[in-house]
Amino acid sequence: MKFRHNRAPFYRAQTWRPLEEDGRARPAVQIFLTQRAFIRICAHAGSNLQNEVGGWLVGKVYLNKDDEKPFIVINTILPAEFTLQGSAFLTFTHESQVNLHATMAEKYPDLLILGWFHTHPRMGVFFSEWDRWLHENFFPELWQVGLVIEPFSASGGFFQKQVDGSLDTRQYFGFNELFHHRRRSIVHWRNLIPVENIKNEMRQK
Ligand SMILES: [Zn+2]
Fold first, then answer.
1. Sign of dihedral through CA atoms 205, 70, 91, 94?
2. Ligand 1 centroid vs 151 CA: distance in angstroms?
3. Which of 53, 124, 132, 188 is the most buried (most CB within 10 A)?
């Protein structure tokens, strides 16, 4: 698949990273998450605190003009309406897959499925063996990511492939919060800290 070149929009983003981050990690893509998508994710994550809920991340993939590296912009989400839910179980049924492709073709013909998100109520932010299986089977591309949200502690993180294709299920990553109009952050996850974005400062001078 060929992707369009664009400039990674660091100049209107706030970068968030986990409190504990492995500095040697080399994620395959930079993640930009719009504030609109963030709000929708949080609303869906809080809609059922007894069961895991989830859905798909929808948006675009670009190549950064500055360094030729891919980055993704998550514009919106699609809640997975037809998943089977249990206290620690979430899957994508055949019906939900069929429904997904129909919805994408009808509502978002120019957008791609960039990955998925799901909640781990009272369990923490991690990728289980089942999560890894789902991710590798349904979201095999280097630019597809998995977001896990723990609604009780207000935390979340992205699992993503590294440049060598490996997926570490113990380590999650932060993201770049993409502002709409005003430069005011709305991210409230307690396990992430804001990064002074050197690239932002330089662009503004
Ligand atoms: Zn899970």
1. positive
2. 13
3. 53
204 CB contacts (<8 Å, ≥6 apart)? 11
Query: How many whole angstroms from 103 Cα to the centroid of ligand 1?
Result: 24
Read off the pLDDT of residues 20-56 as tens digits, 9 standing for 90 and up.
Answer: 877 788 999 999 999 999 999 999 999 888 888 899 9
Mean of per-residue pLDDT scores for the chain: 88
Q: Which of 18, 59, 43 minimizes the C-alpha distance to 143?
A: 59
Q: How far is the CA of 121 from the centre of ligand 1 (A)?
A: 10
The reply to whether the predicted model has a pTM over 0.85 is yes
Of 58, 172, 63, the C-alpha closest to 120 is 172
Domains of the chain are: 4-204 (3.40.140.10)
Helices (H), 12-155: 35-45, 94-107, 129-138
The pLDDT tens digits for 122-149 are: 999 999 998 999 899 889 999 999 999 9
Q: How far is the CA of 43 from the centre of ligand 1 (A)?
A: 18
